[in-house]
């Protein structure tokens, strides 16, 4: 039997990538290739706080500029596989809007932080160190997974199982710990931390649901304190409530029957906890359907391959 005609197993894992994700992946690869051909281009594409005022486009281009080969590889793989899950649930327009908005917010935060650190420490390295990479957006994607399927257990290296709601927190803790021992990891820390927070901020208050037209996710399961262990939440909740009022003028009322965000006694858009619950249910169903489809495709491929192999063995005997 010709081995070329035998179906391969597991191909479904590497299929189903959306056109938007493939296009953005091509942009990441192209910008990395441009830096390899013209190293001086990093001054125009990466975020350099001292040059941001004349080169304001760096606030946009920095998020799509990977300076290292491992960085671009991780970004492309993360974009394709996470995007394959998130984009169908959010919609292509909202998925792209999330990337654009969160990317700009991350860059603005890094710029402001670098300027503040310079005035505090007077070290010019904060002003002239190029900062770039897609890893902030990837961190924001993990917050989206936390929102849609918080109680889903994900396996890592076939040994460790972690609930999806703890993945952003675990990423932040690991990166902080690694930064203590590896100096190069410090450059990734602000982007990832701001990516987690800005991803949560956008999903919490501003993301528009294409089906209901409501904005945000005010559920307790997606509160700011949900990123932290249970014993810290009584301390964090009052602080988070203060930011709620500052950001959206929302007041949080709790009763024995229901809890909702209101302004002047009128429920605000996106304040329906039932809608937030439905969003998580859709995420869980989508994951189950995707995993079921992949398992079914693998099983069909195995059966077909075994059938073709048996025909080939029979023909050899004849």
UniProtKB/TrEMBL annotation:
Residues 290-318 are annotated as: Disordered. SMART domains: DUF1751 (SM01160). It is found in: Membrane. It is a multi-pass membrane protein. Keywords: Membrane, Transmembrane, Transmembrane helix. Its main location: membrane. This is Rhomboid protein. The keyword Membrane applies. Residues 290-303 have a biased composition (Basic and acidic residues). InterPro entries: Rhomboid-like_sf, TMEM115/Pdh1/Rbl19. The chain crosses the membrane at residues 24-48, 68-86, 98-120, 126-145, 166-182, 188-206.
């Amino acid at each position: 039997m010709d081995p070329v005609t035998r179906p391969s197993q597991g191909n479904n894992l590497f299929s189903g990538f959306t056109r938007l994700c493939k296009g953005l992946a091509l942009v990441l690869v192209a910008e990395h290739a441009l830096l390899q051909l013209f190293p001086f281009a990093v001054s125009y594409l990466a975020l350099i706080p001292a040059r941001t005022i004349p080169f304001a486009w760096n606030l946009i281009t920095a998020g799509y500029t990977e300076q290292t080969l491992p960085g671009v590889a991780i970004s492309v793989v993360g974009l394709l596989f996470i995007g394959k899950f998130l984009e169908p649930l959010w919609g292509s327009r909202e998925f792209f809007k999330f990337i654009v908005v969160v990317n700009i917010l991350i860059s603005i935060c890094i710029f402001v932080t670098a300027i503040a650190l310079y005035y505090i420490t007077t070290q010019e390295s904060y002003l002239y160190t190029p900062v770039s990479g897609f890893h902030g957006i990837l961190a924001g994607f993990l917050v989206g997974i936390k929102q849609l399927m918080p109680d889903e257990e994900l396996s890592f290296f076939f040994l460790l199982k972690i609930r999806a709601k703890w993945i952003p927190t675990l990423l932040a803790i690991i990166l902080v710990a690694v930064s203590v021992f590896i100096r190069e990891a410090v450059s990734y820390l602000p982007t990832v931390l701001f990516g987690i927070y800005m991803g949560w901020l956008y999903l919490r208050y501003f993301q528009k649901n294409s089906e209901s037209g409501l904005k945000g996710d005010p559920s307790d399961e997606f509160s700011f304190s949900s990123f932290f262990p249970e014993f810290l939440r009584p301390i964090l909740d009052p602080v988070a409530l203060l930011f709620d009022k500052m950001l959206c003028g929302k007041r949080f009322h709790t009763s024995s029957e229901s809890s909702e965000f209101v302004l002047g006694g009128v429920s605000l858009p996106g304040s329906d906890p039932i809608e937030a619950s439905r969003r998580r249910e859709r995420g869980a169903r989508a994951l189950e359907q995707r995993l079921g489809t992949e398992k079914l495709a693998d099983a069909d491929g195995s059966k077909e391959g075994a059938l073709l192999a048996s025909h080939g063995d029979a023909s050899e005997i004849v």
